[in-house]
Design goal:
The complex is a heterodimer of chains A (110) and B (151). Chain A has 110 residues and is α/β, with parallel strands linked by helices. Chain A has a single domain, classed as Transcription Regulator spoIIAA, CATH 3.30.750.24. The longest helix of chain A has 16 residues. Chain A is globular and about 30 Å long. Chain B has a five-stranded antiparallel β-sheet, with helices on one face. Chain B has a single domain, classed as Heat Shock Protein 90 (2-Layer Sandwich). The longest helix of chain B has 23 residues. Chain B is globular and about 50 Å long. Classes of the chains: A alpha/beta (110), B alpha+beta (151). At the A-B interface, strand 4, helix 2 and helix 3 of A face helix 2 and helix 4 of B.
Chain lengths: 110, 151
């Protein structure tokens, strides 16, 4: 997995490329927490380049959601393909996160 | 003149593929192994979502459990994987050198219950069971989890 982080207006946009799994999810968590520590409060994670996510990847997203909310921030997820949508629906995590079909819709929703 | 389309390819349903491998207890191997098994499924024309979601996620979970829980990431311990696929069925066995675990007890908490949704853990076995048609667990004497998925 690799990911890129950039700023769009006052929103931190993270693109996850490849799989989000036990071997690499800690890296994503740390980078987002670093941004949170720097005072960033709006986060968008874009999954258009993501393959599959395992339970520990889902766990990191849950953890980030909690930590961001605790700091008064907001997290959006965007561009889940059909397989990832199925995964979120199966685990009922589609009720926990704010998920947008497109990056643009996610950015507008802040 | 024949009106039948000329077929240059037939579905490989008569084929059977098997692979057997062993890895040290290191999570960095998981993606590669999952890739190999996904390719087996693609070669046998398994439905797209089963290749892209069911197999990679369930297998990642089983490998992760074997490495982290079964073998406690001990580099001296191995995880053994056997994967066989034919026109109907994929069967993957993941074996670790651990003492085994009580799967029923490990699954008693429902990760989709509202009170558990904010938990970071507890979804691995749930996903394995929901994405595979059958999950079996036994000792031989290695601790083995067998995943079965039908086309």
């Amino acid at each position: 997995m690799s990911f890129s982080i950039k700023k769009q207006q006052d929103i931190v946009v993270v693109d996850v490329e490849g799989q989000l799994i036990v071997g690499n999810r800690q890296e994503l968590k740390q980078k987002v927490l670093d941004e949170l520590e720097r005072g960033e409060r709006k986060f968008l994670i874009d999954f258009s380049q993501t393959g599959y996510i395992d339970s520990s990847g889902l766990g990191v997203l849950v953890s980030l959601s909690k930590k961001i909310r605790e700091q008064g921030g907001e997290l959006r997820l965007a561009n889940l393909n059909d397989d990832l949508k199925t995964l979120f629906e199966l685990t009922k995590l589609d009720t926990l996160f704010q998920i947008a079909d497109t990056r643009e819709r996610a950015l507008e929703s802040f | 003149m024949s009106t039948q389309p000329h077929r240059t390819w037939t579905p490989p349903y008569g084929m059977r593929m098997a692979l057997e491998l062993q890895i040290p207890s290191d999570v960095r191997y998981i993606e590669r192994i999952v890739g190999l098994v996904m390719r087996q499924c693609e070669e046998l024309d398994f439905p797209r979502q089963k290749c892209a979601l069911n197999v990679p996620v369930a297998l990642s979970e089983a490998l992760s459990n074997a490495i982290l829980r079964g073998n406690r990431e001990d580099p001296r311990k191995q995880v053994h994987v056997r994967s066989a696929i034919d026109g109907d069925t994929l069967v993957v066995e993941i074996a670790d050198e651990g003492a085994g675990f009580d799967m029923v007890k490990a699954m008693r908490r429902d990760p989709t219950a509202p009170e558990n949704l904010s938990r970071e853990d507890g979804r691995g076995l749930f996903l394995m069971h929901h994405l595979m048609d059958r999950v079996e667990h036994f000792s031989n004497p290695w601790n083995v989890v067998r995943l079965t998925l039908h086309r």
